[in-house]
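ASSEMBLY PREDICTION REQUEST
Request ID: AP-0331
Submitted by: J.K., bench scientist
Number of chains: two
Total residues: 541
Priority: normal
Notes: Please return the full assembly, not individual chains.
Input sequences:
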Amino acid sequence: MSLHTVSESILSEKRDSSTAQEEIIRLEKVSVQYRIPEERIGTFKEYAIRFLQRKIRYNTFWALHDIDLSVYRGEVFGLIGKNGAGKSTLLKVISRVLRPTKGRTVIFGRVAPLLELGAGFHPELSGKENVFLNGALLGYNRKEMEACFDQIVDFAELWPFIDAPIRTYSSGMYARLGFAVATAHVPDILLVDEILSVGDEEFRKKCNARMTEFRDKGSTIVLVSHNMTDMGKMCQRAAWVHKGVIEMVGDPDSVIEAYRGL
Amino acid sequence: MTHTDKLMTLRPYFDSATQKVPALEEIREIKRYKYLIFQLTRRDILARYKRSFLGVAWTMLNPLGMMIVMSLVFSQLFKMVPNYPAYVLSGLVAWNFFSQSTSAAMSGIVWGGNLIQRIYVPRTSFAISAVLTALVNLSLSIVPLIAVMLFIKSPITPAIAFLPVSMIFLAAFALGIGLILSTLAVYFPDVAEMYQIILIAWMYLSPIIYPENIIPPQFNLLYHLNPMYQLVRLFRLPIYDGRIPTLNEIWPAAVVSIAVLVIGWLFFTSKSDEFAYRV
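STATUS: Completed
Returned structure:
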């Protein structure tokens, strides 16, 4: 009995060292169910009546179904799939926005979501005030924000406008500031959802350079994109998500090929 | 770097399987996110006054204006109340605090709705910052209250030092109600409209603009069951009446505010994981 456990532990150790990979995101049988009422019930009275009549009907559908996925430290991991396949839902599970209906999520690090730039900016506040507000929304504290404030404004190239209300900013300035705040610190895990389509060529190049820098410093990046050439170039591994199920995980070229073959 | 050290410990930063008690988990998260609470409060205070010429002065002018109107209308009717302007103003600032913080907590979760679908933040932060914002406004409106009392020569005694205790109970009660309302508002948007009507009725059922001794004795018991009666009285005693409240005046307010806060916190956190699916 004791011998058995010892040999087992040696075996598992061997497996760990042979792959030399550290899990940073682990999803175990994760399922997410959306429940959409057939009709919108907006008042108590209506709700009470329907409840008593047992007439509240829901359309349920599984946005994710039994997802098992491990992402390892330091890799750039791509998610591909059609619109509505569940890619964004998967990112929301990783960033803790959605708690899975079933299954378990384990995250070994701090997640910086780059989902929509500038979410939570207040139009009346100045650029500077918004930098601190946005940083706080991303979970940073005062010290961390004060330490990187100059660098944020440098990156966004917004020194002349930083004290002006953000409602006076152009959409490009808005996106630049949002990106600069979201990437002010080297995160353990960076989630990127199709945001690089905003902004001009120069800004896109800057963003890509930033992401490469993060990867070199050891961040793990999970990327959603419809641009297959980008995905092939940037990712070490990719997963193809189809109708809430992972169809295939592997090296990006063969996953893209399989996805295109559908 | 520190970031590698953190990973070496291999302690999960987040594990959905270990979160058994959402109410306690939320307290931990709020501690982690206290800078966010500060920033949200700051945003609400700054944003409110950014475009107005007089800025923060409106927090003081608003109840002052209300007091002048009430005094002109009612001081003849309530001649038996000594220093009626001070009586009505002390009641009004306490009531305004309550109605402001609960309404703001509710609209905060609706505003935050599009945010909590994109990034993770502790969901109670919106209600907590709404109460803190109102608490700042309440503290500011105590300034004109004291000015009015000095002006009409209503006595101010050292008992005023008890006022922060009354404010803490009032804030706890408002946070509890705010959390319950915001949970309901996520499921039933009509609650927000309905609540505005309830607030008006509730205000006239509480001794804000009239003295409590005009209540017919047969309603006395019912009247004492109104938490806002207990809380407004606790607020008024140290400043308007100028004496430390007795134990019998303190405990009903303390019990009701802490009970409502606990119930609100449990109710909100038991539902808040569903919010991202609903709002």
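REVIEWER COMMENTS: The radius of gyration of chain B is 21 Å.
SIGN-OFF: pending second reviewer
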